Amino acid sequence: MARPVLVVEDDREIRDLVRRYLERAGHAVHTTGSGAEALRLLDTADPAVLVLDLGLPDIDGLTVLAAARDGRQVPVVVLTARSAVEDRIDGLRRGADDYVTKPFSPTELVLRIEAVLHRTRGAQAERVVTSYGAGRLQVDEARHEVRLDGVVLDLTPTEWGLVTALCSAPGRVYSRYELVNRVRGYEFAGYERTIDSHVKNLRHKLGPDAARIVETVLGVGYRLGWSRDE
Ligand code: CA
């Protein structure tokens, strides 16, 4: 099944309008008016592209934008009433792939979304697999796969987030707080401690070398113990 377009917009009329036009163009669509729900859907709905209103009632749209880009690499089309040129540049610099200012033509929006999908599909096909520990650990962003000794690991979205965060800078120590932010895109109370149980589950899947792959740095956090292959 094709990966859906995730539409995050708190204005119900606009949300329904965008959904209608996208569905008419043959896309599967998920919608929400909440930023917190959007963060959850980024992990559970596996969207091919995110259409994001920056002015959300619960959390800042830029937080959702950062979460989509960071680790997950979901392309983003920003939708906003803020029409100032500086906002436009700021949004694009933070990683939006395109930017549509309200009021907009829904037909144009669909075309822009499809252009972003087309561009990123090409880029994903070319993306190289990164490997660590002399080829033993491989992270394939395009296929969303982690392989250890050639075997694909069955990871939860949180475990995938942990692996990609640690692998983005081998040897660098990440605090639990940083990992929560990398994995979930934003902070929420009490979650910091649960990182330990996710690491425990991840290590279980990594087998006998787990403690050397994901190293504990006492009193600080975790780091990738293996170095990246050239
Ligand atoms: Ca809004």
Biggest sheet character? 5 strands, parallel
| CATH H-level homologous superfamily name of the largest domain | Response regulator
Q: What percent of residues are in strands?
A: 15-25%
Average pLDDT confidence is 86
Radius of gyration: 19 Å
What CATH first level of the largest domain would be assigned? Alpha Beta
Count of β-strands: 12
Distance between the termini: 35 Å
Strands in their spatial order, largest beta sheet: 2-1-3-4-5
CATH fold title of the largest domain: Rossmann fold
Instruction: Tell me the CATH architecture of the largest domain.
Output: 3-Layer(aba) Sandwich
Total helical elements: 9
Question: How many individual domains?
Answer: 2
Order of helices and strands: EHEHEHEHEHEEEEHEHHHEE
Shape field: elongated
User: Uncertain runs with pLDDT below 50, 5 residues or more?
Assistant: none
What labels describe this entry?
230 residues, alpha/beta, Rossmann fold, Arc Repressor Mutant, subunit A, 9 helices, elongated, binds calcium ion
